[in-house]
């Protein structure tokens, strides 16, 4: 019997981490920290607008009226999406919705007043949009409820359509 054309790839189990480069060893942990910080900051934006804490909506100490378009809905997405990403629960879906809401915020609120984000006050929207897009593609990292509940569902290198 002949050997298979594509032998199974051995997955890194963490037993020989001393030989791996520092950046490779700690990538999942740094990704988890990145996700936690981005989720916390995003949830704080939503909490400020919904509950009037941390300076309130736009730093005025007030809240956004319930049901007002688009501010209240954006604040709900910020608060709920931020908490979900922070906890690492439904991470990719929450990151997708959060990224989309920030793209909408940039193009509907900021982009009309000037071309560059530094000129139109849209830097936070752009940064959150791209940060959530990164989280969407890279996943939650090691410390997440997704990983706790569903395990490591990373695609294997020898499966068709797996990321390289």
Describe the structure.
This protein is mostly helical. The chain is 57% helix and 0% strand. α1 packs across α5 and α2 runs antiparallel to α3. About 7% of the residues have low confidence.
What are the SSEs and their pairings?
Layout: H1 22-51, H2 71-87, H3 91-110, H4 117-120, H5 123-138, H6 145-150
Helix pairs in contact: 1-2, 1-5, 2-3, 3-5
Mean pLDDT: 83
Name the shape in a single word: globular
Category from helices, strands and their pairing: mainly alpha
Count of DSSP H/I helices: 6
Instruction: State the assembly state of the protein chains.
Output: single chain
The termini sit apart by: 30 Å
Instruction: Classify the beta-strand content into a percent band.
Output: under 5%
Largest sheet: none
H/E element order: HHHHHH
Low-confidence stretches: 7-12, 155-159
Round the Cα radius of gyration to an integer and report it.
20 Å
- Total strand segments: 0
Helix content: 55-70%
Question: How would you summarize this macromolecular structure in one to three sentences?
Answer:
With 164 residues, the chain is mostly helical. Helix content is 57%, strand content 0%. The protein is globular and about 50 Å long.
Key terms:
mainly alpha, globular, 164 residues, 6 helices
């Amino acid at each position: 019997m002949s050997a298979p054309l594509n032998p199974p790839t051995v997955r890194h189990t963490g037993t020989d981490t001393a030989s791996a480069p520092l950046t490779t060893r700690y990538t999942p942990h740094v990704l988890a920290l990145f996700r936690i910080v981005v989720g916390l900051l995003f949830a704080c934006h939503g909490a400020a607008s919904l509950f009037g804490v941390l300076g309130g909506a736009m730093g005025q100490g007030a809240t956004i009226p319930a049901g007002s378009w688009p501010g209240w809905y954006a604040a709900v997405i910020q608060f709920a999406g931020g908490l979900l990403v922070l906890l690492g629960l439904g991470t990719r879906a929450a990151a997708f919705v959060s990224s989309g809401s920030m793209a909408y915020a940039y193009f509907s609120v900021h982009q009309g007043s000037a071309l560059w984000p530094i000129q139109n006050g849209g830097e936070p929207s752009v940064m959150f949009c791209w940060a959530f897009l990164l989280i969407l593609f890279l996943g939650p990292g090691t410390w997440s409820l997704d990983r706790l509940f569903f395990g490591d569902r990373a695609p294997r290198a020898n499966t068709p359509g797996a990321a390289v």
